[in-house]
Amino acid sequence: xxxxxxxxxxxxxxxxxxxxxxxxxxxxxxxxxxxxxxxxxxxxxxxxxxxxxxxxxxxxxxxxxxxxxxxxxxxxx
Length: 77
Known about the structure:
Layout: E1 3-10, E2 16-24, E3 30-31, E4 38-39, E5 48-57, E6 63-72
Antiparallel strand pairs: 1-2, 2-5, 3-4, 5-6
Keywords: Lipoprotein
Protein name: Lipoprotein
């Protein structure tokens, strides 16, 4: 999936951050594990999805994801 408009915002203490980015999911699909049926995006939905990933640095200095939020159609070009 193409990714665009990445932005990282570091917290004042340097041990937390937020990563924001958009994806173009027009060619994305899902597979129903029970039926094996593959489906694309429902007609009429915006294929661009905005993601916001909150991260924090652990005691070893490794960035870990705390939460992920997504919003379909939340991207602006």
